[in-house]
Amino acid sequence: MKINKDGLQAEQVATISVNPVTAYRMLKDFTPLKEGDWYIQNGANSGVGRAAVQLGKLWGLKSICVVRKRDGAEGEALNKEMQELGATVVVNDEEIMERGFGERVKEWTNGGREPLKLALNCVGGSAGMALAKTLDDGGTVVTYGAMSKTPLKVGAGMLIFKDLRFLGFWVSKWGDRFPDEKEKTIDEVLGLIRDGKFKDVPMVEVPWSYETKKEELLDAAQGTLDGFRKGKGIFKFGDT
Questions:
Q1: Which of 70, 79, 106, 119 is most buried by its number of CB atoms within 10 A?
Q2: Residue 218 Rama label (left phi>0; alpha psi -120 to 50; beta)
Q3: Are 82 and 67 in contact, with CB atoms under 8 Å apart?
Q4: CB-based burial of residue 199 (10 Å sphere; 0-12 exposed, 13-18 middle, 19+ buried)?
């Protein structure tokens, strides 16, 4: 597709079709959400997570955002940053595993009267199941990543008594099936960027030229796979 690049940076155009589109479609396509409804997500400070926070805020949704625990000033700074992006509640990945976390969710959702119907999961394993436990009956868990490299172990009770749905989403396959919708989604998000209503995710540029050592590229790729990076890694090509 052709993109009008006016008012945009090359990095924005290069990354628009992945994280923002993933967040957009997961919030729109899996369960009906109206203004004032809640969703919960882990990996909330990832590229997809940050996009979901901003889009959800624009659409009047409320969010419980789970991030990896950081001590001291670093943790406080991240919480503040997420709230400034639009997160309603920010908790860490240890808090969500604590007994009694469900009661905290009820407090935030007006005694459980405000629906919590959607969970966005990029971690998997016990962290993903912790999200599922917070959902109301009939809720949906959408998994789009597996950073923990461990499976979701779904108990029969969640399927029988809570009627939860567990689904997956891969934006590349979705884009192949719905190219027109993909183009519309990209155009809408780019419009938000131009209007100053959507912020870029932090990015870490990795130069790639004749002089770049193989080890530098391998380290950059491994950092992305491990999930430990201060921003989205992008290769910036020089002379190759």
A1: 119
A2: alpha
A3: yes
A4: middle
Tell me if 48 sits within 8 A of 22, measured CB to CB.
yes
Using an 8 Å Cβ cutoff, are 59 and 35 in contact? yes
In the prediction, which pLDDT does 215 show? 80
Starting at the earlier edge strand, list the strands of the sheet with 89-92: 89-92, 62-67, 38-41, 116-121, 140-143, 165-168
Closest CA relative to residue 134, chosen from 76, 83, 95: 95
Q: Name the stretches of the chain with pLDDT < 50.
A: none
Counts for the chain of helices (H) and strands (E), in that order: 10, 8
Q: What does the DSSP assignment read for 31-98?
A: S---TT-EEEESSTTSHHHHHHHHHHHHTT-EEEEEE----HHHHHHHHHHHHHHT-SEEEETTGGGS
Tokens (6 digits) for 78: 């991240």
Q: How far apart are CA 178 and CA 175, in angstroms?
A: 5
Burial 52-83 (b: 16+ CB within 10 A, else e): bbbbbbeeebbbbbbbbeeeeeeeeebbeebe
Residue 24 near residue 31 (C-beta atoms within 8 A): no
**Closest C-alpha among 177, 198, 222, 193 to residue 57:** 198
Whether residue 135 contacts residue 110, with contact meaning beta carbons closer than 8 Å, is answered with no
- Spatial separation of the C-alpha atoms in residues 2 and 74, rounded to whole Å: 40
At residue 86, the pLDDT reads: 97
Give the H or E element holding residue 199: none
What SS3 class is residue 138? coil
Does the pTM of the predicted model rise above 0.85?
yes
